[in-house]
Amino acid sequence: MNYNFDEIIDRHKTDAIKIERCKALFGTENVLPLWVADMDFRTPDFIFEAIRERCKHPILGYSMPPEDYYPTVIKWIKDRHDWDIMRQWIGFLPGIVPGLSFSVQALTQPGDQVIVQPPVYFPFFHVVKNNHRELINNPLKIVNGKFEMDFDDLEKKITSRTKLFILCNPHNPGGRAWNAFTLRKLAEICAKHNIIVVSDEIHADMVFEGHKHVPFATVSETAAQISLTFMAPSKTFNMPGLISSFYIIPNAEIRSRFVEFLEASELAGGNIFAYAATIAAFEKGNDWRKQMLEYVLTNINFVVDFLKVNIPQIKPMIPDASFLIWLNCKELGMDDDELFDFFVRKAGLGLNKGTIFGPGGEYHLRLNAACPRIVLEKAMKQLKEAIATSSY
Ligand SMILES: Cc1ncc(COP(=O)(O)O)c(C=O)c1O
Fold first, then answer.
1. Which pLDDT score, from 0 to 100, does residue 270 have?
2. Of 198, 246, 249, 287, whose CA is between 20 and 30 Å from 169?
3. Coil, helix or strand for 349?
4. What distance in angstroms lies between residue 309's CA and the mean position of ligand 1's atoms?
């Protein structure tokens, strides 16, 4: 079956954050919204069918995970990432970002240090600071146009108070699918210093041809024993509003500390629609996933080629995975506020400001390419005209 990703779907009056918060964030509703990381594609029909099927029963009572939930998750992860996981390692998580916050609360004490690698998905900072832990930045380096980890800096920053490392794999906003060599080295350093690694792998199922997602826990037995991995069908199948994530924790002691926290907070239960949607996504979604990725990659290539020919001052980082493009706009010669303002007011484009991703985000913007191509064509045209007609 061929899926149609060109369809324009009006998201107004659906409480979509991408639309409803434009005014608050950009000061105007008159922008093409290319920010919040959900897709403007139709959530696939097999997800709706699964939800409708569950709705045929007249009672939406307290429910357990359906019998095929765990085998389906296990099979998907084996097929996609060649990782053999055990049933008892997995559990429902009410959101990946909440999961990051739970890890901070369950596995560290106030005043402990938690390491992140900016520029990175901004809630990584919030879950550390809002829980009164000390945030330690281990900034990524750019080598040959792509992010690399800086292990020398990492080793220098670790102290006896460093307890947790939050990894973004694949990386948002850079789209880097970290390789086994890098992850193994990270595991060795963290294990040496008794640091637990929580690996946010929400983008794992969106790696492009020619690249590979390597789950952190698979690179060595050491990595498996010091880590928590968080995954979800939510991003890949465009259903983040359903809350459908899960954790995988091979180490019994870390798992029991984490689960104890979830249970004490009464957070361990999932919801019937998320279970049904997850099973449908993983049983029926691979073809949709592949077609969606092909479409997104063509979108990304379109933006990259357009910028190269028409606005070479803007340098995109080419992602290995997912639908986000990290744009280096330094050569436009504007400061961060001017840049953001220029995109909003002159080009009519609503992108994420780079500085929210922390150090290394200066002069950058993040563009969401998961939309019908015609929207991106319009966006690039508006940007080209804005540059041509401005004396910025
Ligand atoms: C790296 C990363 N983690 C987590 C999330 C959000 O996860 P959730 O909606 O499950 O909290 C996102 C969404 O953009 C993300 O990019």
1. 87
2. 287
3. strand
4. 33
Residue nearest to atom 12 of ligand 1 (CA): 202
Q: What is the pLDDT of residue 268?
A: 78
Mean pLDDT for each consecutive 10-residue tract of the chain (392 residues)?
95 94 95 96 98 96 93 98 98 97 98 98 98 98 97 98 98 98 98 98 98 98 98 98 96 98 88 96 98 98 98 98 98 96 97 98 98 98 95 66
How far is ligand 1, taken at its centre, from the CA of residue 324, in Å? 13
Coil, strand, or helix at residue 83?
coil
Report how far ligand 1's centroid is from the alpha carbon of 376 (Å). 23
The helix/strand count (H/E) of the chain reads as 14, 15
* Tokens matching residue 244: 């459908």
Q: pTM of this prediction?
A: 0.97
Level-2 CATH architecture, domain 17-44+287-386: Alpha-Beta Complex (3.90)
Whole-number Å distance, alpha carbon 238 to ligand 1 midpoint, is 12
Ligand 1, pocket-test mutation among 35, 38, 169, 172, most atoms within 8 A of CB: 172
Alpha helices in 29-122 (DSSP H): 45-55, 69-81, 96-107
**Domain spans, the chain:** 17-44+287-386, 60-284
Q: Which atom of ligand 1 is nearest to the CA of 99?
A: 11
Q: Ligand 1 centre and the CA of 333: distance in Å?
A: 31
Alpha carbons 147 and 319: distance in angstroms, whole number? 10
Listed as own residue / partner, the contacts of 26-33 with beta carbons closer than 8 Å and 24 or more positions apart are 26/344, 26/350, 27/344, 28/344, 28/345, 30/348, 31/344, 31/348, 31/349, 31/350, 32/348, 32/349, 32/350, 32/375, 32/378, 32/379, 32/382, 33/350
240 lines ligand 1 (CB under 6 A): yes
- Quote the ligand 1 centre to 215 CA distance (angstroms): 16
Q: Identify which of 122, 200, 237, 242 to mutate to test ligand 1's pocket (most ligand atoms within 8 A of the CB).
A: 200
- pLDDT (0 to 100) of residue 266: 86
CATH topology of domain 60-284: Aspartate Aminotransferase; domain 2 (3.40.640)
- What is the per-residue pLDDT for 231? 98
